[in-house]
Amino acid sequence: MPKKSKGAIDVCPTCGNKVDKPTKTWQLVAPLPDAQGRITITVMGVYECDKCGNRWKGVVSKIKAGGTSVEVEGKKGTKKIETAPRSKDEGYVIELNLEEGEEDEEE
Ligand SMILES: [Zn+2]
Q1: What residue numbers bound the domain in which 25 lies?
Q2: Quick one: pLDDT at residue 107?
Q3: Cα(7) to centroid of ligand 1, in Å?
Q4: Torsion region of 53: left, alpha or beta (phi above 0 gives left; psi -120 to 50 gives alpha)
Q5: Interval between CA 57 and ligand 1 midpoint (Å)
Q6: Cα 19 to middle of ligand 1, angstroms
Q7: Which residues contact 12 (CB under 8 A, 6 or more apart)?
Q8: Residue 47 Cα, ligand 1 centroid: separation in angstroms?
Q9: What's the pLDDT tens digit per position in 5-21?
Q10: What was the pLDDT predicted at 66?
Q11: What count of other Cβ atoms lies within 10 Å of the Cβ of residue 94?
Q12: How far, in Å, from the CA of 10 to the mean position of ligand 1?
């Protein structure tokens, strides 16, 4: 891809018009946590230029959630929100129920 000046996501790549907000957004959740056990949620958006009708999509923001903080990465930079502190050794617990049918306990 040609390297255009890396404009803001909300600026039309064709005519340079600034769009207020995306017409549609959705989230992509990374299936695996990062090294710090956080899940990355990418917010994607579709923008539509009201001048030339161009449509494009891009990353609106990224959210990293897990542990004791939530990090939101957006146009204005990264914002870190501390969530309620937990006791140190209490991790991020994901319970998986892998039991299948009738597996009775053995002795
Ligand atoms: Zn445009």
Answers
A1: 1-107
A2: 60
A3: 13
A4: left
A5: 13
A6: 9
A7: 18, 19, 47, 49, 51, 52, 54, 56
A8: 10
A9: 567 899 999 999 999 99
A10: 84
A11: 8
A12: 10
